[in-house]
Amino acid sequence: MSAEGILMLSPDELYVYRGEGGVLQGVIAGKTYQELLIYLAFPMSYTNGYVSVRTKEGDELGVVRDLATLDQDSAAVMKEEIELRYFLPRVTTIVSIKQRSDRWFWELETNLGSIRIMMRNLHEHIHFPGGDRILLSDLDGRRCDIENWKLLDAHSQRMLRDIL
Amino acid sequence: MMDVLPEPYRSQLKEELLFNVKTDLDTQGMLASQWLAITYGEVRLWHQGAQPAKQIPIEDIKEARAVSNIGSGMLIIETKNGPVVVARYTSTLTSAMSFAAKLISALAQGDELPVVTKGDIPQYCSNCHSPMEEGTKHCEVCMSKKYAALRMLGYLKPYKFKGILAACLLILSTIVELIPPYLTKIIIDDVLQPQQPGAIFAIIIAAWAITLLVMSSMQALRGYIGVAISSKLMGDIRKEVYESLMKLSLAFFDRRQTSQFISRVNSDAESMRQFMTDGVIYIAGHVLRFLFILVIIFSMDWKLTLLALVPIPLLVFLSISIWPKVGRRLYQQWRAIFRLNMQVGDTLQGIRVIKAFGQEKMELARYHTANEEVVHHDMRSEKMWQFFFPAFGLITSLGSVLIWYLGGHQVLSNDLQLGVLLAFVAYLGMLFGPIQWLSQMISWTSRAMTAAHRIFEIMDTPADVADNPEAVKLSHIKGDVVLQQVTYGYEKHHPVIKDINLEVKAGEMIGLVGHSGAGKSTFINLLCRFYDVDEGVITIDGVPIRNIEQSELRRQIGVVLQETFLFDGTIAENIAYSKPNASPEEIMRAAKIANAHDFIVRLPDGYDTRVGERGHKLSGGEKQRVAIARAIIHDPRILILDEATASVDTETERQIQEALANLVKGRTTFAIAHRLSTLRNADRLVVLDRGKMVELGTHEELLEKKDGVYRKLVDAQMEMSKIKGVGT
């Protein structure tokens, strides 16, 4: 089936860069935009492709199929922007999981630094998207990603096994 | 508590500090703290060093925005040289940063400065860092030192007299239970001696028999009281959970699958009841017995007693060490069942779709996976017991072996009477019996705790839309509705209704028009106060709806929704849903106005026709007319219609239209309109686009706007009907 109705952006139609103020800017199909927003169409399954590029009002300008096809600079900026926009720290170590009254407190080490998240319960805050991946969400709507819990260190695995 | 700006930073400010926030991400998106400060003259951000990382004079600023990302956000300031990302933060700080953005914009544009409210600054407990509910001073998590167990026992309060009676019987029967072994001692050591007269023997045996009789009667009586308390208790818990569910706001149910609550209300309440009635009596009984026996055997032979107590520290250690594990295993088991229940609930609700797509096998496979998981967790936690029960048994038997060995030696060397040894062993059996059952106790208690946590979770969830304590009742309303600067988002700070201002006079009919997702349904949800507005105010006859009792408000508002839901019951009961004491005439009159009377009367059971879950026996158009009749009998001053898009045949549509026209007469009406006929009938149309009100006027006025949103919508609809016309 063709992607009719979806405007796929070809690499030569798109050039993005970070403006002086740190905002994502770019030239798309010959037009310059002071501020661009990007959305991953499949934030869990494809983190390097199917990127919807939109104006700050949210109107779609087009979709990039694969970041790898873009010029190096644009691809690097896009990747960086995705990391910034989708706050999903990847868990490297589980320091502790404590239950106190009806709250669960997780102390985690992630690729973005240490974070403490809080859950009201486990059954609504732990998700299993498939395979050995685990997504943790906290009361504030923040999420942390355990890409493969079987690859974590022994201590972290023991902590998880205890509750999962 | 708002974090206080550190002195080294504060001292750099030349003007009064208006607002400051400690952010939790740096500009590269790493978890780190930065300080943002806003004064009349500038916005400053410090990263680590003493020098600010960013410094923007207010005079260079056009406006500021808090942009929501996924799990995080950024504060963007539009300067004269283009947009600048001033700070990044995780979603924990969304509300504080939204306030910062509003404040900066107001400063830049010379508007009145917004006042910070409690809701803008999330409150955190200084002790455990949990967020605290708005308006509370104490942290819920730290406060609940009042453990679930104590709270659970609180349910026994209404039954305290019966409970005290049961406790007295328990103490008495425990004492009586301890008599037989002592009688054994007397029989062996004093009675079964050749020189003793037979009369004493007979008396002792009679005493034994009486003891047994008294014991059994007391047990029966205690059991009887126990059952009486437990059934009522179970009812109380179920009632309270259900009340809590009814009290919760719609937003709570939006995010959850509802079938899960069926099992919660029943099975969790049962686990709690079991603990409170059987469990409490069981535990109390055994603890009492343990203490009594200890006293008796100490008085008989303190050395042997000490020996008998050797295994106890080991048992206590074992119990303490397995306790947390048991709790977690049981919660795992609970979650597995919870997922299975959700799965079944999902499947049954979507059974039509499953059948239509022929996906039964896939659903079976999904069920199978969830079922396997339950089996796995069941086995895991049961296996644990299969280990612990014998382990407890073994440890306690060791005590008996020791006593038999040393006591036996003493009897052989005539240091101890045989009767004392036998009584001792019998008491020891009674002493360790309960300790072996300590494991049973742990099982019951933890099961009850798991259930209690889940139940209290429901009870403790605050209602998002709560009644104001000073809420008023409205005796009679005219139906003037005013919306002032109304903004709302299901996810706070991602508004789907933005800054709406509208004045509607009593009796006026307003048509809500817009693409799907424009905010029409949210608009009517706000009018019904299913959700509270984030900003602005909605008033009815000048009274803000937040200050009107919810039950009263809903009494004044009638709703006919797109998805018609009929309750399990007769058609008459469904029509009289909001007015259960309506007379047959009233019901028929309402049905007549709704154009439903004729088809209902033609049904074999007429108004007494049972309509099952979701009213399966009626057609779409019929159900809708019953729903209209329900709204008519409710006789609301304000009416909300969510017009069905489902296509019905022309005759049915005409009847529904006619019914609706009858219904709206003299009432303030808000209708989500799709049909041109409804649009033409409306006094004014509100055109929504991405949450904003972009056009307002009559059908004719709006059609005149060549590039107007409404004009485009109407043109598109005409086009569609042409295509349909060609197609048919």
Please explain how this structure is put together.
The complex is a heterodimer of chains A (164) and B (728). By secondary structure, chain A is mainly beta. Chain A folds into 2 domains: 11-85; 91-163, no CATH class. In chain A, 15% of the residues lie in helices and 43% in strands. Chain A has 2 helices and 12 strands; from the N terminus they run E-E-E-E-E-E-H-E-E-E-E-E-E-H. Chain A has helices at residues 72-85, 154-163, and strands spanning 14-18, 24-28, 31-33, 36-40, 49-55, 60-66, 91-100, 103-110, 113-119, 126-130, 133-137, 143-146. Chain A has a 3-stranded antiparallel beta sheet. In chain A, strands 4-5-6 form a 3-stranded antiparallel beta sheet, covered by helices on one side. In chain A, a hairpin with a 2-residue loop joins strand 8 (103-110) and strand 9 (113-119). The longest helix of chain A has 14 residues, at 72-85. With 728 residues, chain B is of the alpha+beta class. Chain B has 3 domains: 7-141, Pleckstrin-homology domain (PH domain)/Phosphotyrosine-binding domain (PTB) (PH-domain like), CATH 2.30.29; 148-460, ABC transporter transmembrane region fold (Up-down Bundle); 481-721, Rossmann fold, CATH 3.40.50.300. Chain B contains 25 helices and 21 strands. In chain B, strand 20 and strand 21 form a beta hairpin. In chain B, helix 6 packs antiparallel against helix 14, helix 7 (198-247) packs parallel to helix 15 and helix 9 (260-300) packs antiparallel against helix 15 (438-460). The longest helix of chain B is centred in the middle third of the chain and has 53 residues, at 360-412. The radius of gyration of chain B is 36 Å and the shape is extended. Chains A and B meet through helix 1, strand 8 and strand 9 of A and strand 6, strand 7, helix 3, helix 11 and helix 15 of B.
